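go over whats below:
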Amino acid sequence: MDPRPYVIGKRMKGVRRVIAVAAGKGGVGKSSVASLLALELSRRGYRVGLMDLDLYGPSDHVVLGVREARPGEDKGVIPPEVSGIKFMSIIYYSGNMPFASRGVGIGNSITELLAITRWGNLDFLILDMPPGFGDATLDVIRLIPKTEFLIVSTASKLSTETVKKLIGMLKEKRVGVAGLIENMGAGSHVLMNQTKALGIPFLGSIKYDKNFEQSLGSEEKLLKTSFLKDIGGIVSNLGMV
């Protein structure tokens, strides 16, 4: 019998709330939302962890500007603090090399990362999920039953169609859905109306921020973006404060 699910349960005992930031497809800004959500929560005085589970395309370290930080070891792996956030990612082990694995290998890697990481006591653990609803999503649902999903989408029909499928799967599995965020919003009510029909909360829009790209990797610049300001409103709508 694999002891790791039991170990993961022990690791999560000190974590009050687990939020998995997910999307039906890639390219909608999921990692930016996950990273800045963690940053905003940390700024408000919460104890926050951020785990990048997008093994093929980890990018939270680029958003936050993680450079020299490395995990410690003491009866497991202790994530370093970056901008007041305990941060864990596959990049500590793969570096700039591509993560070449599939199927069982992906599930095994995610299970191992969750099992070895010692979070201690946290108010929030933010999981940056890979896009879609494949093995990684099913593994997180199985291994961390208290996880709530926060869905990120644009108003594009290509994105909203996959979101419907993702939400349908989560409801079928009886998994909590904290709500949906529109990224790169242009003031339309498309997503607001759709989420109402799907029976989940619409938490707000993040407007397109032309300065956001130039702010990546700099906490000082990120704090001045309209992106972070919009995240602040969403944090309040999530009932986190």
